[in-house]
Design goal:
It is a single chain. By secondary structure, this protein is mainly alpha-helical. The protein contains five helices and no strands. The protein starts with a helix and ends with a helix.
């Protein structure tokens, strides 16, 4: 059970880090291109959300395979765990997005 909770926490913070790091470092490129950095940050945060999810759960094929075998073999607990891992990563990515929107003064 402890490993499960640790994985949930790791997924949350990995996704959060991908969004925050990707948008902050990615917006540095806008300085060189003479584009508005805050607008680029908002665009990047929105585009990186799905990639933050994928990187947090370690690739989509493993998660899909576990879900598939869980349904086929009747191991619903594994399916629920995978959905919770994905949900945890989603919340981390969404929190990162909300932080970027707040910092950039967006909607």
């Amino acid at each position: 059970m402890e490993k499960f909770v640790h994985t949930l926490i790791y997924n949350f913070f990995i996704a959060l880090g991908v969004i925050l790091g990707g948008t902050l470092i990615g917006s540095l490129g806008s300085i060189f291109c003479h584009d508005p950095p805050l607008k680029i940050m908002l665009d990047l945060a929105e585009k990186l959300k799905i990639w933050a999810l994928v990187s947090a759960i370690g690739g989509t094929f493993v998660a899909i395979r576990v879900i598939e075998t869980g349904f086929l073999d009747g191991q619903i607990s594994n399916v629920i765990k995978q959905f919770l891992f994905i949900l945890s990563a989603f919340y981390g990515a969404h929190l990162g997005y909300l932080i970027i929107v707040f910092l950039a003064g967006g909607e």
